[in-house]
Model the fold of this input.
Amino acid sequence: MFFERPGGGERAILVHIEGQDPDVREDPQEFQELARSAGADMVALVTVSRYQPSARFLIGTGKVDELHDLVKADQAELVIFNHTLTPSQERNLERALECRVLDRTGLILDIFAQRARTHEGKLQVELAQLDHMSTRLVRGWTHLERQKGGIGLRGPGETQLETDRRLLRIRIRQIKQRLEKVRSQREQARRGRRRAEIPAVSLVGYTNAGKSTLFNSLTASGVYAANQLFATLDPTLRRLELEDLGPIILADTVGFIRHLPHKLVEAFRATLEESSNADLLLHVIDSHEPDRMLQIEQVNAVLSEIGADDIPMLEIYNKIDLLEGIEPHIQRDEETGTPIRVWVSAREEQGLPLIRQAVAELLGEDLFTGTLCLSQDLGRLRALLFEQGAVQEERHDNEGRTLLSVRLPRAELNRLVSRAGFKPDDFVAQHTLQ
Done:
């Protein structure tokens, strides 16, 4: 709609800045992956050592002159900085380099714009783009200081820039209203799942850690998965049956990245709430990545920002097929014996049963395992238990009563007993064989 992308393959020069504070320094390898994911044709990577950023250009004037010569020599159409630029820095650089300039936030926004498929995803991206670009509008209107006067040409007394900002504010308000409606619909669906006592499990992790591949392997789905950053934007939910536990809802969500722009976190809040409302988080980690500890810290930082840092978590160390001497296995807490980490390969489908086992253990702590003694008039409850797949064995005693060996979450048993018209706690206490 508002920001049209070129056909693709723009010749781009990448600028990476070294010497920054470690907390704000970016990874040049990840930067190149981002540029490739956006469809840029990288012609050069320029590394700049700068300990004190310049207010005018971020980098020094000498390096700006070098970049200008490089742009002309390589016929580059775009210069991308692996850093956040202020609106004035971006404008100054565009004037000096005589080409388009994009910062890290704008690059990530462009990737998101390409990946969004659903109506909700497109709205979220547009909102983040509008928020980001509203402070940069002056770039587009340097030739129009005032609307023309004269008969038939007098405007409402606004500059063109003020008119455009007013239209932007209206559009932003409209998108937020639509997203609020989407948010309420998601919350309504979550309430329905909670009433049905179906646990929600959400996949989270750094971008390109293999979440969608794992999701497809576990649920036999066809979610788009690729070896690129931010392949998944729109959340996908699937029902998954676990032996010993019953049904769960598994959600595949957007990946995180270092210094994920705050505007994106805000715009995608409705989507990220799938994680903040989950009963269990599966933190998918690229076990082959040398900087995986930094990636884990970044994911935890975003989870804290969306209020999901207190949700139980199971770490899934993926891509063990790229490591030597590592077999699929579950690591357990030494004191409690509960699963804390599972080593798998989603691509090779190695260790997937271990994930199911660990999830069932963590979600099934309040599991009912026992024998129910049902009289003949309780056929409806018997049918419900069989329908749920909770019956492990059926036999009959000398008085004609049905003895069912069942295993299912206590909350699910209470729900079935309620559907049969009884008070759960009293009924289970009276009809369980000791």
About this structure: The CA atoms of residues 258 and 294 lie 9 Å apart. The radius of gyration is 28 Å. The chain has three domains: 11-102, 197-363, 367-433. Confidence is low (pLDDT under 50) at residues 1-8, 139-150.
